[in-house]
Design goal:
mainly alpha, 3-stranded parallel beta sheet, 6 helices, manganese, PPP_phosphatase, hydrolase, Calcineurin-like_PHP, metal-binding
Length: about 140
């Protein structure tokens, strides 16, 4: 995805998240399912498997993602792009909780910073700065 679109997505995500409280409450009735996921750690195949087994986020399919979206795996940025896009499309059905890997120092150690810089050589620093603002 071109850097301009990534930056635009990050800007819109940040704008949306700033409107939300720090703590969000998610409740459902007995007839409604919520899929709770955590620790994707850059494993895009895991996210695809979750969507394959449970369906894509939609007005009838809610998700809570409990952090640690990035680091370790090789497709952390793709996971963020997908999760942030679904968050903007379905803001009442997709909930993102920050994990300890959504931190600049942890990203330096476990590979996310390097991943972004390899994928976006020219705009990598700007994208990383915006991602940290979103986190």
């Amino acid at each position: 995805l071109h850097a301009r679109y990534v930056l635009n997505l990050l800007h819109e995500t940040r704008k949306h998240l700033k409107q939300l409280p720090n703590i969000s409450h998610v409740s459902t009735c007995y007839s409604e399912e919520v899929t709770v996921c955590g620790d994707l750690h850059g494993q895009l195949d895991d996210l695809f498997l979750i969507f394959y087994k449970n369906g894509l986020p939609s007005p009838s399919k809610s998700y809570v993602f409990n952090g640690d979206f990035v680091d370790r795996g090789k497709q952390s940025l793709e996971i963020l792009i997908i999760l942030f896009t679904f968050l903007l499309i379905y803001p009442k059905e997709v909930h993102l909780n920050r994990g300890n890997h959504e931190d600049h120092m942890v990203n330096l150690r476990y590979g996310f910073t390097k991943e972004v810089m390899q994928k976006y050589k020219v705009h990598g620093k700007k994208i990383l700065k915006m991602i940290q603002n979103v986190f």
